[in-house]
Amino acid sequence: MTSSSQRVLAAARAAGQIAAVRHRVELRRRRRHPQLAAAVVLGATFATLLLVGTVPVPLYESVWPEPGAYHYGTLVGTESDRVLERTRELAATGLVLTAGLGALGATTSDGWETPPTEAVTAVPLSSAITGVLGAALLEHGWFVAPATLGAALAFTAGTGSPATLAGAVVGGGAILLTGLLAGTAVGVAIRAAIRRSPRLYSARYAVSVLLLFVTFVGLAVSRRVAGVLGSTPLGWYGDLALATTPGLEAGPVQAGAALLVATGVIPLALGTTLVSGRSLWFAETVLDDGIVSDSRPGRPTRFVGRALEARFGRATAGATAAVWRRMRRSPRAMLYVVLPLAFVGPVTADVSTTAPALLAPLVVLYAASAVGLGTTLNPLGNERVVLELVRTTPGGPDAILRGHALAALVPGVPVVATAALLVGAAAGYPPLTSVGFAVAATLVTIGGTGLSLAVGAYLPNLEGPTPASLSPPELYAMLVYLAAMVVVASPLFVGFGTEIADSLVGIAATVALCGVSGGVAGLGGYRYARRRLEAFEPGVDS
């Protein structure tokens, strides 16, 4: 063996060891935070069910009746053209989504933020970058690999031919390899390119999530988009997945081209990641560390600040302004405001056809819930550095909690009220009904903010970027809060989702019930959050 081959093997071995160690660290972190593992399990389970589809198992068909890989496997002998077309569409769609997942992880993950000192000082830089890349691929693999393998097994079972499994596994693996590698390489390159701009670099979280959400909803809602993708060379991966399926004429040229592309992506993605990773870690940059003071606020901000100070006092107004500044520094903490859209979008599209009367309350419920999915869902984590000082300051806990609530309500209430008026008008509500609908939505929003404070105080996330930024809420907190908001907003659905709110008495009763549910949730939640903040001990309760 030549010396160059030995160096390549040594570098590859070092990269593998780095990837394995970093992945073990991430697994230990999941054990400390079970909600992280639960999120991966839930996501992988949902994706697997979606791809596998209905199978002939007692009770399963009634729980999950949607057709998937197994169903199309049974159609190979009778509708081979349809199966080939659908497989090409799914292969192209899966390729786009996995590439988006890889790009999202590369642009937002903390793993690429700084070079791992223990690695770059012990092994060549190329091995360190490749090791971080391998750890990222392993992390994504927990989410997408079970779904891909489940679809391959289900399709094989549907066809009844074991030979089908070889092509399905190779095709699925090629999709994952191409999508994740290409997406990660592009994400690291984008991150390196915008690192010199503090504004662009801090906005990458919101932009990345928004783009992935638009892509996800577009592919989930519109079959036409999937059909267009399937007719492009991306659909050739479907031919590769069907290459060994008996009784189906997949294109051998297309399958070979897909396999060749999947093989060629490896060196291209590695080269791009090495160049971009070196620039990302060691190029001279000027970034806002979250501590420097912001520019002088504009006239509208000063007006709002004076109004808040006159009504709630200087301490609360100062806490509100501080939360707003930290929101600009840490947009990542606002991720959960848009995350539920990935589920609400397809559900809303389905409700619009099956139960159109519930569409307006559902849209308003999301808008009201979004107000409480940001700053108020982690008050203890956001103030973890100054908790001891806050408790010894007269009125400190109240100022902090009110500041978090007002930071969400001041911009959120006008948005929710306007959205309710527009949605009500679009749904054909009379003017008086639309006004009542907006008032009820506002009451639910205010109550939901207090509820959010309580949930965030009960399930805090005490791990954050810097003392001057906000901490992202816990996933468990988001799920609990959304489930509780359905209960708080139940009068809204009962009143405006049926014919109860068609009369003046019905409107008044619905608004009153929303006021009661919002008041109980908001006031009770605020009081619980204050008791929790006053009694919380970071070293004991965390």
Highlighted features:
mainly alpha; globular; 542 residues; 26 helices; single chain
Note down, in words, how this protein is organized.
There is one protein chain. The protein is an all-alpha fold and 542 residues long. It is built from 26 helices and no strands. α18 (359-371) runs antiparallel to α21. The model is unreliable at 288-294 (pLDDT under 50).
Helix content range of the residues, please? over 70%
Order of helices and strands: HHHHHHHHHHHHHHHHHHHHHHHHHH
Enumerate the spans where pLDDT stays under 50 for 5 or more consecutive residues: 288-294
The tally of beta strands, per DSSP, is 0
Assembly type of the chains comes to single chain
Cα distance spanning the termini: 54 Å
Assign an overall shape: globular
| Average pLDDT taken over every residue | 81
Major sheet description: none
Strand content: under 5%
Spatial extent as radius of gyration: 26 Å
Secondary-structure-derived class: mainly alpha
Number of helical elements: 26
